[in-house]
Amino acid sequence: MNIHDLTDTEKIEYLIHFENEIAQIYETAAIKGPIHLRGGNEKILIKIFKQINTDDTVFATWANHLEALLHCIPREKVKKRILDGHSMAMNFPEYNFYTSSIVNGISPIGVGVAWAIKKQNKDQKIFIFIGDMTFQSGATIESIRYSINFDLPCNWIIADNNLSVNTQTDIAWGGNIQRLYKFFEKEISYNHCKNVTIKYYRYKNTWPHAGTGTFVSF
Q: Is residue 121 part of a domain?
């Protein structure tokens, strides 16, 4: 089944059902590794992935199940990787999909791939999905600035749930994350970039940062 053959409503149900199934399995202690479930942002992700082709490359964080499914990676392959304990390392080169369990890990890698694509004059794009705390961290800030300065085919997507694990981002960092986003928007416009984009959305995650909220003894 190709997920893009579904209606938007069916896609939302599909994604929610998948995360619920993984949660149920996790609570049986069958998954010997951490999981990071997400919910509440299905609608916006579906809209974003309508702009992403299967030959474009997607970079995602350790919380990557929804992005993997929306990038047309078969459900059973995603599920098997999770059941094998590799939820945080969901790398599928054959589907142009990469993740990192390291904060900031995907940002410089994504920019490097975008630079190679530009050098080779390929008609591909890079989509880098990051969270609000990562967005304000050093290597990611540098990576975004670099992609703007060289107008690389990078599309940055910031998902803001105002949390880093259980720490509120606005309290930890101070200031306003939307101001930083607007700053980069202006930088893109000022530099007359044709290839770089940056998107920001806010949502409330329906799951804890990691796990399901139920203590599981292995």
A: yes
Number of domains in the chain: 1
Q: What residue numbers bound the domain in which 113 lies?
A: 3-202
Q: What angle do CA 106, 71, 62 make, to 5 degrees?
A: 35
Exposed/middle/buried for 70, CB within 10 Å: 0-12, 13-18, 19+? buried
Q: From 31, 35, 39, 34, select the one nearest 15 (Cα to Cα).
A: 39
CATH number at residue 145: 3.40.50.970
Q: In the prediction, which pLDDT does 165 show?
A: 86
Distance CA 55, CA 131 (A): 24
CB atoms within 10 A of CB 190: 9
pLDDT classification of 169: cutoffs 50, 70, 90: confident
Segment 71-92, tens digit of pLDDT? 999 999 999 999 999 999 999 9
On whether residue 207 sits in a domain, the answer given is no
Write the pLDDT tens digit of every residue in 16-30: 999 999 999 999 999
* Pairwise CA distance, residues 90 & 64, whole Å: 7
The encoded tokens of residue 186 equal 């202006």
**Does pTM surpass 0.90?**
yes
Region for 88 from its dihedrals, namely left if φ exceeds 0, alpha if ψ lies in -120 to 50, beta otherwise: alpha
